[in-house]
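Hi P.,

Sorry for the delay on this. The queue was packed all week, but I finally got your sequence through. Input first:
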Amino acid sequence: MRRSDFVYPEGQIYLDGNSLGLMPHAAARELRRRADEWASRAVSGWDDWFDLAERLSPSVARLVGARDHEVVATGGITVNLHALLATFYRPTSVKRNLVATSLDFPSDLYALKSWADREGAELRLVESRDGNTLTTEDVIAALSADVALALLPTVLYRSGQLLDVETITRVARERGVTIGWDAAHSVGCVPHAFHDHDVDFAVWCHYKYVNAGPGAPGGLFVHERHHHETPGLAGWWGHDKGTQFEMRGDFRKAAGAGAFQIGTPSVLALGALQGALEVFDEVGIEAVRARSLELTDRLIALAEEQLPELRVVTPREHAARGGHVALAHPEANWLSLALRERGVVPDFRAPDILRLAPVALYNDEAELERTASLLRELLDSGAHREFAGREGAVS
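Then the structure:
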C-alpha cells in the first residue's frame, strides 16, 4: 500500500512487524529534525517541544477511536499500566480481586500481580480451552461480584485472536468492574472505538504496527468521564501546562489524559512517532484494516492449501482476528530459524508457534506466496532440522 514510505530491508521478506515495525522515511526525517533543533537551539528548543506529545494526540486518537483529550503519547506500556492501576485499582472489602488471562503478555501479569500482592488480593486468570484462544463467555464469567478491575488484551500476542472489546466492556461496566485494555497488538492495525465503547482506560505501544521505532513512547487512553480523577502517580509532566514552570509545590493536574504523564518525554522519540503517524493520517486506519485482512486471508488460505502440517490457530473470522497469523508446528522454532537464513523474517513463540505478520503498509501477496513456498520446501526436505538445539529469535 505504502511500501515506498519505508526503509525496507534489501533482499528480505519482513513479516515481523508485530514485534518491531520498519522505519518510515518520515520518522527518520523528524528524528533528524529534532536532533538538529537540539544542536542549533539547545535549551530554547523547549519553546517548541514543550507540548509536542499533546500536539500528537489528534493523530493517536484517530487510531483508537478516542477524543483528542482522552489520549497522550507517553511512557511505555508497563509504566503507563502502573500509573493507571495506581489511579483506578481501588479495592474494597467487597470488590478487591483482579482479572487477566492466562494468555496475556507476561509484563502485564507482572504488574497486576504486584498490585494484587500489595493489597492482599487475588489475580485470577481466565484459562484457555485450547491453549491458544479465549471465549467471550469465559471472560465474562470471570467478571464476578468480588472483582474490582480487569485488564485484558485486545489481541492475544501468540495466536492473534481479537477479543470482543465492545461486549466485554459493556458487561464489565454493568457489573461495576473497572475495565482496561492492553492494545499493543492492535493499535495501528485494528480500528478501535474506546470512547464509544465506554472503556475505562487502555495502554499500548507505538513500535509495532505504528512503526515509531524501538523503545518508542507508548500511548494511554483515559475516558473523559474519569478526567476529574487525580493521577495515582503524579509527576512533573502531568502538571497543568499553564503553570508547570511556576514550580509550585502543589500538584495541579493537566486537563485530560495529559495528567497521567509522569516524567519529561524523549523529544527525539516523540519526533520519530510524529513522522510515523503521518502515513496513518493520510491513509486512515479503516483502509489499513481492510488491507490487513486481505493479506491475512491470503496467508491463511496458503497455509491451508499448501501447508497442512502447520495448524492455523488464528481465528478465521474477521471480527476475531488481529493483524498476524499464528501457525502451530512442533518444529516451529527450527522453521523460524531456517526461514531467517533464507531471507524471510518471521517470529517464534515457544513452544510451537510460528507468527507471520503481513503488515498492510508494506507487505504484499507475492511475499506471502514466496514464504509459503519456502516453508513447503523446508517441510519436504527436512532442512530446517539442521537448527535442532538452537534457540529461535523471540522479540
